[in-house]
Amino acid sequence: MEQSNPTRLQELAQFLRTRRARLSPEQAGLPNEGRRRTPGLRRGEVAQLAGVSVDWYTWLEQARDIQVSAQVLNSIASALRLDTDERKHLFMLALQQLPAEPIAADTAVSMTLQTFLDLQGTSPAYVYDQRLNIVAWNRAASLIYGDYEGMSMRERNSVWRTFLSPYVRQLLQENWEHHARHRLAQFRACYAQAVGDPWWTDLIGELNRESPEFRAWWPRHDVLNGPEGKKINHHPAAGLLVFEQISFRATDASHLTVTINIPSDEETTAKVRKLLQRM
Fold it and tell me: What is the pTM of this model?
C-alpha cells in the first residue's frame, strides 16, 4: 500500500467492517454460538477463515499502513463472501489495481451483443475471449477477415491465425509485422493470468514449432493491451481498406472484448457495402 493516502486506508477499513457486520456465522459456515452483542462475524473469525493472524486483520480494519498481497486479499474476499464488484472494490482500495480475472470457460455471447455486432453494418466487428479466440462476429468481419463459421476454434484464435495463416499475411502485407508484434504482446499479457495452463502451453508449443517469427519474438516478453488504431487491409476482392479500430469490454460478460473497425473514409465504406451486397 502507498504510505501517503490515509483517506484510502480509512475507506478500506470501513468497507471491511461493513462487510464483516453483514455476515452471520451460519452464512460463513461457522457454528452459531448464540446471541451476539454486535451483528456479524468477529475479527478473529474472519482472520481464521482467511488464514491470517487476528492482529494482522485487526490492523487492516484499523487503517494501519501494512503490506498486503493479492493472495491474502483473495482469501479475505472469500471469507467475507464478497461478490465480483465488491472484490474489485477491495483490490482497488488495498492495491489500487483490479484483481486478475479467471479464464472463463463460457464463451457464448448474448443475443443482445450479437445484434449489436450485426447492426455495425459496414464496420467489421467481432468479439474475442481472454485467449484471443474470436467467438462472435458480423458479416462484414467474416467477408474481410475470413470465414469464421467454417474455421475450427484453433483457426479462430487470432494469434494462431496471425502467425500461421497465409491469408492474414496477404491481407496485411507491409503492416503484417507491426500487427503480429502487437497481437503477440496482447497474448503475452493475457498469458500472465494462466501460466502453465495446458491450453496455452499447447498453443505456444505449436507456434514455436511452426512460426520462426513467433519463435524469435516470444522470448522478448513484450506486453501490451489496447487496440491498434489505424488498420490497413489489402482485400483480394475489394482492394485497399482503411479502418480506425476501437475496442471495449462487454458489460454483460467482462471476459469478452468487442472490437469494431470503423471505415476511415467514404471509399472504404463504399467498398465494404459493395462486398456485403455482392457476396
Answer: 0.70
